[in-house]
Amino acid sequence: MKNVEPKRRVLTAVVLLCCAQSLAAEDGPPPPAAEIKLPAVAGWNEFVDGLRGLPERMLAKLPESMRNDPQVQQEVGRLMLESLASSTLDAIGGDGDFPSFLPVIGQLMNIGQPNADTVYRSARITPGGSYRMRGQRGSLRMLVIAETGPSPGEPGFDPAHARAPRSTHDLNALELDAQGRFDVLLSPQRPDAYAGDWWPLSPTTDKLLLRMVSSDWSRERDPTIAIERVDKPMDKPRRSAAELEQRLRRLPNAAAFMALLFADHVEQLRKEGYVNKLKVFDTSQIGGLANQFYYEGAYDLRDDEALIVEATVPAHCLYRSIILTNEIYETIDWYNNHSSLNDTQAAADADGVLRVVVSAKDPGVPNWLDTAGYPRGVIQGRWTECDSKPVPSVRKLAFSKLRKALPRDTATVTAEQRERVIRERRIQLQQWPLW
């Protein structure tokens, strides 16, 4: 009896093997891949072909030294993926009849120097439609919606309208109920006898760009925002094959528009002579906020050098910030580096002058912008609703002489303190809503 169990196990294994071989013989080997004729997805090959040459088009806008740099080549590839990701979200989820606010640029879709303090979302709308927005306003200092029109390559694009000023709407100006909720109607004309909050919509607007700006990352409360079309019934049919194909075919142009828009912006600043020097940046033609004043300039630094950026802080300012970008105009990773500063993070000195140090090495001072491995890029600042609009001066000096060039009472930040600051900003930013 001792040998019964082992024999039973062997017999079971043999039976299972025979069954498997029998089934395989009945099914037969799979046919070669070449013999399988599958239908093509209309538009897919054209979508792939439309993206194929995009990296080369982006590299062509850069100087030869950057074009031939393997590091820059891969970062250009990343920028292309960021543009494709942003455009793909719109291609999948953008619907003017059933809108929602989707991420458009930011930490992961780092296109065109997104501000480190801003969450950007965009909602598709149908020109001529009427919409209702509701939600909790929260406590952000800035909560603004800008109307935008079709981009190049999109249906309805008109160059004559593309650079025309667009309306902006302030969510913080809306009436609130006892629970802090807002309710606003957006439409081409105000309905008769309508007494609530109302914003007019331009007949050419097809997107609403939402900016949610926070200065005090740990204390300000984010809003909740919902949008619906109210002049059509809630009946969303299955999207037709023709519409899905059109969205797929339009995607390469949308991604290319975003990827190429600012690819050579830093190089243009260098050609104009704004290296370690700042100038006014007019964004009125590209969707910048009307009440926001921008300045920027390229920086160029060795590891043993530093810049001191100085400006007298306006007496009154709703918001201010200063950030760094790399050479292809991506904002330097502000989640994991000390590469952005706003009015709650960077205080002026006793004389009213804001002094910010830009360097690769930690200078051990509170107001530091870390180049984080990018020896060249852009310094960009914003003054929002300020009573003055200074363009800061820039001084370049040896890193070893930095301390003597700053006021004597400039605080010291130890390596341990800096580690805590960066860890804390990372935790705070991860708690922001991306959706």
Compact description:
The protein is of the alpha+beta class and 435 residues long. The protein has helices at 4-27, 44-52, 54-59, 64-67, 70-93, 159-162, 241-261, 265-271, 402-405, 415-430, and strands at 102-103, 118-124, 131-136, 142-148, 168-170, 181-187, 197-200, 207-213, 226-229, 279-281, 292-300, 305-312, 317-325, 340-342, 353-359, 368-370, 376-386, 393-398. The protein has two domains: 45-261, Sandwich (Jelly Rolls), CATH 2.60.120; 265-430, Jelly Rolls (Sandwich), CATH 2.60.120.1600.
The gross shape turns out to be globular
| CATH class identity of the largest domain | Mainly Beta
Q: Sheet bearing the most strands, described?
A: 5 strands, antiparallel
Residues in helices, as a percent range: 25-40%
What order do the helices and strands follow?
A: HHHHHEEEEHEEEEEHHEEEEEEEEEHH
On the 0-100 scale, what is the average pLDDT? 90
Q: From the 3D structure, determine the CATH topology of the largest domain.
A: Jelly Rolls
Number of strands: 18
Cα separation of the termini: 68 Å
Q: What share of residues are in beta strands?
A: 15-25%
How many structural domains are formed by the residues?
2
Strand order of the largest sheet: 1-2-8-4-5
- Radius of gyration (CA) equals 28 Å
Number of helices: 10
CATH-derived architecture of the largest domain: Sandwich
Low-confidence sequence ranges: 1-20
Structural class: alpha+beta
